[in-house]
Task: structure prediction
Amino acid sequence: MTDLLQIGGITERMRERLSAAFDIHQLDDFNADSITHIVTNGHDGVPHDLMTSLSNLKMISVYGVGYDAVDASAAAKRGIVVTHTPDVLNKEVATTAVLLLLSCYRELVRDDNYVRSGRWEVEGNAPLTRSADNQKIGILGLGRIGQAIVDKLEPWAPEISYHTRNQKDVPYRYFDNLVEMAEHVDVLICITPGGPSTNRLVNAEVLRALGAGGTLINVSRGSVVDETALINALQNGELGWAGLDVFEDEPRVPKALREMSNVVLLPHAGSATIETRAAMGDLTVDNLLQHLKDGSVITAVPECRDL
Ligand code: NDP
Result:
């Protein structure tokens, strides 16, 4: 049997399918020379030193589409193929972005608490909320998931804008400057990959441009937003609301954010439904099994497509 190193959690279904073809090893029980395959996830990735120490490593299968925690360029140079799970989670993550947007505008958390706490009975109707209809939406990162977010929001939103490095062939307004887009829109939705090229792209200047009436939604990576600048902007009224699924130092979330009433927080649950995690798990395992069978894979990351 082939030796597979498991980093992070996998589902029972993944374990069952993998056990038929691999000897699954945990981080506290493996022989570096015999590991040829790794299954990991977008959060844990593969630590640099570990990858270096595995001289016979051939393949890394990431249970997730974001692979910024794996050095895919270094892997490609060594002929190690990295795979991920694109597309099967697009609609789910898009739903999460919409959920956060609606929760910010319609104060879902505040009003749920208003009913539960008995305040409705005592104080009468809750204060009014803001309408989520007819807001100008700006998407930072119009890739697979960004497009799925637009598909869900288009019937509600009169104007969609986007910022990416390369202009796309789409009927939405393109901004080559993120600050200018933030000035123009009511809602900024972040859905780029993580990693150095997007690190703290959403900084104090972008947040100020989004403004006191603006809402930031982040379903990308915590690293894309300068979290300290975000807290300052929310605290001093420079930014109105934030809906956040991802954070700089997960699962630790700054106390300041946890105490604010103008934020909605999720525990990195963008793709976390039973159905979508099953589809992601299947693709993660299919990539490993196919590689074992004939050396090919289904969904290599761009850096490894020519291997
Ligand atoms: P894609 O590769 O399809 O799209 C990425 C988009 O980001 C592209 O439009 C790209 O355009 C743009 N982009 C990349 N770098 C930059 C940059 N420096 N500045 C501006 N735009 C940039 O990825 P997906 O849509 O499949 O996934 C996006 C990310 O979503 C994942 O990498 C992951 O980090 C995150 N994610 C989060 C989840 C969650 O649970 N919250 C779940 C799943 C994914 P261009 O290259 O032209 O700049």
